[in-house]
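Late entry, evening session. Most of the bench is empty. Finally got around to the prediction I had been postponing all week. Sequence below, unchanged from the version circulated by S.P.
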Amino acid sequence: MTEQQITWPKTREQLTRMRWQHVNFGICKGVNCKKRIEWWKTIDKAWMPLEKVFETGELANSLFPHWQSCVDAQNFKKPTDEPKAVPAAAKQTEMFK
């Protein structure tokens, strides 16, 4: 099976068509960043900080996830838990009672 590449929606119109909701504008709270960002909510209600990366050229006015360019991105990452152990497979006699 081959991997299929997902095309990122680059414009506000494309995001809206995907049923994302624009919430508001803001400034990154990173100590060294302070870039202007747009807050969007995905269809799954996850918050996504987006920023306009290019002013000119083919990707002018495109929006991309802010964490890709934020110099303080590591300060916003949530700590991850240890990977959970995979439970042992149940015996067939335990599965059908």
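Two things to note before I forget:
The chain has two helices and four strands.
The first strand starts at residue 21 and ends at 27.
Will write this up properly tomorrow.
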